[in-house]
């Protein structure tokens, strides 16, 4: 076995161990996750061993191509910044409170409304942000009313990681894979909207069948604490979110790139908020919290995994892997779905982008990998960083939901969803 492949396997295993054990260290009074440190160590080892040179890395990072990882990170962080800003303005908590009020005493009604709200919000923002925001709120609501939180928190997780396929910016894996093959906003939407609808319908149906008994009990309505909601800041965030989506949709037709459109509107959002905050509050604390909440660790993680895949490319390993997979969407969809739960969906996306580049890739095969990178998160917590964050939040609130319990529900829900989605993709 080639040493490049061994190093990649060892790095992926170290990342998974860090993710599963939630390994972290305290630094400056804050907990710092170690999963990205494992990836960075692997990348540095690849350079030290001569598997890839510093010049090759520099060329990949700064060349003006669609697959440039720095552009992808800028697009992701720009859209995430607007989403986090809306969270800091209290917009998501306001919507969640509205769901509870609309449902009254019906758990079933509450479940379906919550699933719909999370789905819609994920479409226009980011699955990670919705999970980080809604999970604590659901657990708080369940504690106040004495209901079983599991159907709601798992339903929220499924909705967020299914509907993140809808638009190109819903998941960093969507961005990475699509930009690598020059897929524009409208072509992506044309293929992935019906696929997402098929997967969303399948997952919702199975969720209902699994949890219908628990959801049949009435809610014991209790007064909830009023949560702060800043309307002007929410309006600013929503306006710039809408503008950025429109700009990304027309980017390829107007002659500029999506990452630049997202970046400029994120800057506009923060600048407009700063002007308002200075005039009304005299401080910029909300913007400071927004910047602190961004998932900065994703940068060294993605860049490090990119370096490792580059070393596999140099050794001809990805080309060899391309010849082992049949040239059809089902094969690539199922393989990427499974691989996400072995090496996590971000390294999987980097790896499969190279494999697709070495094969006779059709657009359906590319979209199948996008599909696998999103729905892979539903099988085990290892499938995506969102799963690890979600499981960590649940454990912090003393909810008995183990890794094995996740897998039990995950296989029941994810497999019908991925098969339905791939079937829909093959029809298009």
From TrEMBL:
Residues 35-363 form the Citrate transporter-like domain. GO terms for biological process: response to arsenic-containing substance. Its main location: membrane. It holds the Pfam family CitMHS. It is found in: Cell membrane. It is a multi-pass membrane protein. One of its GO terms (molecular function) is arsenite transmembrane transporter activity. The keyword Transport applies. Keywords: Arsenical resistance, Cell membrane, Membrane, Transmembrane, Transmembrane helix, Transport. One of its GO terms (cellular component) is plasma membrane. The chain crosses the membrane at residues 33-52, 72-92, 112-142, 149-169, 189-211, 232-253, 259-277, 298-317, 329-352, 364-394, 406-427. The keyword Repeat does not apply. Belongs to the CitM (TC 2.A.11) transporter family. This is Citrate transporter-like domain-containing protein. It comes from Candidatus Faecalibacterium intestinavium.
